[in-house]
Write a structure and sequence with these properties.
mainly alpha; about 0% strand; about 140 residues
Length: about 140
């Protein structure tokens, strides 16, 4: 039983680490590399930053019940990231709703290996967090 609890807590801790790395990565791109975030980037940040805090608190207190609150948030962030990525990689998606002000959402500040962009990195983080949260088993009493 203790081994099962420790594995569950480890999954929560890893999810928190992913959220922290994603948060620090977004800050690196905007504050150090001076990439101006577009509208959809801000929405992804609005979702990711609280995950860093909520998952950190839950990991500290070994609160596995946080899953029911943060999993929908992580999935929502993944949907925003996927949409943003599609706007960048499929030109016809950009005509659906282009960003109105500031930096256009189809700008690719990075394009590693021809497919890794900032929204792709965010999508990867949200997906890993969601999968880790889905793997956590909470005891229903």
């Amino acid at each position: 039983m203790d081994k099962e609890i420790s594995i569950q807590n480890l999954l929560l801790y890893i999810a928190w680490l992913i959220a922290v790395v994603a948060t620090l990565g977004s800050l690196y791109f905007s504050e150090i590399r001076l990439f101006v975030p577009c509208e959809l980037c801000w929405y992804q940040r609005i979702v990711m930053y609280p995950l860093s805090i909520l998952l950190g608190i839950a990991a500290y207190y070994n609160d596995l019940k946080i899953k029911r609150y943060v999993l929908p948030i992580a999935i929502m962030g993944g949907v925003i990231s996927l949409y943003h990525y599609l706007i960048q990689k499929i030109p016809s998606f950009g005509s659906i709703k282009p960003c109105a002000e500031g930096v256009p959402c189809n700008v690719q500040y990075i394009n590693w290996l021809g497919f890794i962009t900032i929204p792709f990195l965010a999508l990867t983080a949200f997906t890993i967090i969601s999968v880790l949260l889905l793997l956590i088993k909470t005891n229903k009493k």
